[in-house]
Amino acid sequence: MEDTAYQGDSRSIVITVLDDVGTDPLNLDGYAATWALYQATDGGQPMVRHADGGVSLSPATRQVLAKTSADGGITVADAATGTLQLLLTPDDTADLVGKYVHVAHLTKAGTRLTVVAGVLEFRRTVPQAGG
To answer: Partner of 70 at 20 to 30 A CA spacing, among 29, 105, 113, 119?
Structure first.
């Protein structure tokens, strides 16, 4: 999943979680959600793509932002349809420019699922007119 956003903007990210087969929504009742944003610290790419199609964080990354369902930063918008929603505020994105990796996890009864891993690019925003 690759996406583009702008520095200093609000951004809503909707994540639909599918079952293991990838065809039906996973019912999210009882799951806790976490989301984190990581930046490469060596000037390189924050995510490594493997020949088998898998991805992982580059060894030289640091977490720059985190949201959890416990703090209300990421919510189960509709459990039956497997929909999570996360809202980034202007304060969250004020200092973000470049490519970052974002990762979301679900946990329930000791089970952890990675439900999204992808690149989110923040572009420098154009100053508001009259500002």
So the answer is: 119
Q: How far is CA 114 from CA 17, 18, 22, 56, 94, in A?
A: 10, 11, 13, 11, 27
Task: Check if the beta carbon of residue 21 is closer than 8 Å to that of residue 29.
Answer: no
pTM of the model as a whole: 0.83
Pull the structure tokens for residue 26.
Answer: 């996973």
53-72: pLDDT as tens digits: 666 777 777 889 999 999 99
Shortest CA distance to 64 belongs to which of 15, 106, 7? 7
- The DSSP annotation for 57-74 comes to E-SSEEEEEEEETTTTSE
Domains assigned to the chain = 2-123 (2.60.40.10)
Residue environment code for 8-40, b if the CB has 16+ CB neighbours within 10 A, otherwise e: bbebebebebeeeeeeeebebeebebbbbbbbb
Amino acid at 56: S
Instruction: Label residue 1 by pLDDT band (50, 70, 90).
Output: low
